[in-house]
Design goal:
139 residues, alpha+beta, two-stranded antiparallel sheet, single chain
Length: 139
């Protein structure tokens, strides 16, 4: 049985509970020991990496599109993509469509990082198409 106890400033004399009158804190006194609750199972059947893998099997997408679809932070998606690039799974091949400058058309072919570049090295323009990622079946 749980009894609510309200702590009021200056009216806590003679009480059997711990009160801090400077904060007007409300405490609950329990006369029974708390029972240990079983852990709540996760409602999602797949992990975030498995969900990203399923999204990439459909069509090529950028990290931003994946993060918006799955409601995950873009940094977390990039970390999962980095792992999928090294170990895409049996019978799958990780493909990257490189980033490109919208102004001059420069393609970032040699870029190893999966993040989008901030600026074009040729024209210094900042309008860059994001790299796109896909998982394809091996032939």
């Amino acid at each position: 049985m749980t009894l609510p106890v309200r702590a009021l400033r200056g009216h806590n004399k003679g009480s059997s509970y711990n009160v801090r009158p400077e904060n007007d804190i409300v405490f609950f006194v329990s006369q029974e020991p708390m029972e240990k609750q079983p852990p709540i199972p996760r409602e999602t059947a797949t992990t975030s990496r498995q969900a990203i893998r399923e999204v990439l099997l459909d069509q090529p997408r950028s990290a931003l599109e994946i993060s918006q679809l799955l409601a995950l932070p873009e940094k977390e998606v990039l970390a999962h993509l980095n792992h999928l690039a090294r170990a895409p799974g049996p019978g799958l091949h990780f493909q990257i469509t490189p980033a490109a400058c919208k102004s001059c058309g420069f393609i970032f072919r040699k870029r190893e990082r999966l993040t989008s570049p901030s600026r074009c090295p040729v024209c210094r323009h900042e309008s860059i198409r994001r790299p796109r990622f896909a998982l394809a079946k091996k032939k």
